[in-house]
Amino acid sequence: MATTGDEARALIRRLETAMNERRLDELDDVVTAGFVRHCEATPDVDVRSRDQFKEFLVNYTAAFPDNVQTFTQVVAEGDRIGIWANYTGTHTGALGPVPATGKPVDFHFGGVFRVEDGKLAEFWLTWDNMAIMAQLGLLPEAPG
């Protein structure tokens, strides 16, 4: 059964709320057990299940405990949902090999979800790592 645009938008808003309110148990009703995340910005992060997705979110929340993801634009067609979103948070915990900087980040990211049987099954996303690194003070100052 195809997902309507309204159903798709409601589904994506449930994801947004569950992540922002740290109610990851609600993801059981939002994403498939075999959920896959694809992201060229984090090639070393492999997410191939709902449980791995929850673990990923826990780890990023440890690094940015006050993070908020706001889906500013949502477009749905067929089994795809496109988003443009804003991410804000303060880097107060280690992120992989990068120790906490205490600095805030505010950046945009975009992505496309695939819906399967009324749940999110796959996610392709990307963002500008250089912009984030600059905000965290991890890039050298430009000369001049």
Keywords:
144 residues; globular; alpha+beta; 3 helices; Nuclear Transport Factor 2, Chain: A
How do the strands and helices of this protein lay out in sequence?
Blueprint lengths: L4 H16 L10 E9 L10 H14 L4 E10 L2 E11 L13 E13 L2 E9 L1 H7 L9
Parallel strand pairs: 1-5
Antiparallel strand pairs: 2-3, 3-4, 4-5
Question: In a nutshell, what does this entry contain?
Answer:
The protein is α+β, with helices and mostly antiparallel strands. It is built from 3 helices and 5 strands. It has a single domain, classed as Nuclear Transport Factor 2, Chain: A (Roll).
Portion of residues in beta strands equals 35-45%
What shape does the CA trace take?
Answer: globular
- Rg is 16 Å
End-to-end separation: 59 Å
Largest sheet: 5 strands, mixed
Q: How is this structure best described in words?
A:
This protein has 144 residues and is α+β, with helices and mostly antiparallel strands. The chain has a single domain, classed as Nuclear Transport Factor 2, Chain: A. Helices cover 26% and strands 36% of the residues. It has three helices and five strands; from the N terminus they run H-E-H-E-E-E-E-H. A five-stranded mixed β-sheet has the order 1-5-4-3-2. The chain is globular. The chain starts with a helix and ends in a 9-residue tail after the last helix. The model has no long low-confidence stretch (mean pLDDT 94).
